[in-house]
Structure formats: structure tokens, C-alpha cells
Write a structure and sequence with these properties.
123 residues, 74% helix, flat
């Protein structure tokens, strides 16, 4: 579920990016995309889903429950995105060290970072 929440949070951020919106608009103008969407919206599954959604949207209590649920998922997704960004930044900066490096002295760490020189057979 956390991954879905992250995707929701990323989608909300992307929808605020003018470049992403421009690309989405370009995609939606593609005749192949329009044909695909037409087929999808005419499908029985889509029609059934829309009927269920319309029924739910008529109940203010259910709408409020859904709004709260989405807000919570968005909050969790934003936190997960931030955590993933920090982990990626730490990894880029070398913060993602090997477990053995944790107990090493500074001199041992520096020696460990030196690349191994390949053994050359000159015979």
C-alpha cells in the first residue's frame, strides 16, 4: 500500500508541473490514445465502475470518508517519497556504507576505499 501512496503523492506533484501537464496534453491529443480511451469508456467494467462511483458521490458521508482516506494516503505517500529521496541522496553521498565500515578507523576506511590494483602476469 505504501507504494500506491507514493505513486499518488508523486502524481499530485506531477500535476503541478507545467512540463508534465504539457506532455499529458500532448499524449491526450494523440488519435491512438483517444481511440483507446473511447474503447475503455465504452467497456462494461468501466460503465459499472462509473455507476458505483456516481452512487457513492451522492452520499455526503461517504464522500467525506473518501476525502479523509485520500488525504491520509497522500500524507503517507509524501512521507514515503521524502524518505526515498533522503535515502537516495545519502547513497549518492556515500552515506550508504558497508556494514563492516561502521567500526573502522578513518585510516582503515581510506585504505578500504582505494581501488584494488589488478595483478598483471608479465611472464
Amino acid at each position: 500500500m505504501a507504494m500506491n501512496n507514493m505513486m499518488l503523492a508523486q502524481l499530485m506533484k506531477d500535476m503541478q508541473d507545467p512540463e508534465m501537464l504539457k506532455e499529458a496534453q500532448k499524449m491526450m491529443q494523440d488519435p491512438a490514445f483517444q481511440e483507446y480511451m473511447k474503447k475503455m469508456t465504452e467497456s462494461r467494467e468501466f460503465q459499472t465502475s462509473m455507476q458505483k462511483t456516481q452512487k457513492i458521490m451522492k452520499d455526503p458521508k461517504k464522500v467525506k470518508e473518501l476525502e479523509e482516506k485520500v488525504k491520509q494516503q497522500l500524507k503517507e505517500g509524501e512521507a514515503a517519497l521524502e524518505k526515498a529521496r533522503k535515502e537516495a541522496a545519502d547513497k549518492e553521498e556515500g552515506g550508504d556504507q558497508k556494514p563492516a565500515a561502521a567500526g573502522m578507523t578513518k585510516k582503515e576506511e581510506e585504505a578500504d576505499e582505494i581501488e584494488d590494483v589488478p595483478v598483471l602476469n608479465l611472464n
